[in-house]
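Appendix B, record 7
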Amino acid sequence: MNTNMSGASPSGNAMFQMMVTKLNGDMRFVGIFNIIYGALACLSIIGAVVGVPLIIGGIRLREAADSFEAYLRSSDFAALEKGLERQSRFFFIQKVFLIVGLVLTGLYILFMIFFFGTLANLSRSY
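Structure tokens (predicted):
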């Protein structure tokens, strides 16, 4: 079932196929990089908090690349939908990761301001 809004198949467009092929290669590279970086982070207990989401995100991105490749081979719209769904999961994991990182960075900055402010007040006392 090959349907879209215009009625024409995007898989027949050479520019579209070239773009999806390039995207596929980029997703594979980023997916493998995330898996390797996550595995290295998991070598420590604290690093596993970071490593496990990276590994899961990398796997989702590789699955999306596989689905896009299947779409290019067969022009099966279901494969394209599956690829986009897997890609959206990867971006959701990245979004949560980014928000948590920003919150932790903000808390760290506040802690450092408090710590050095207290240290400065203690040094004035002597």
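Remarks on this record: The radius of gyration is 22 Å. The CA atoms of residues 32 and 123 lie 50 Å apart.
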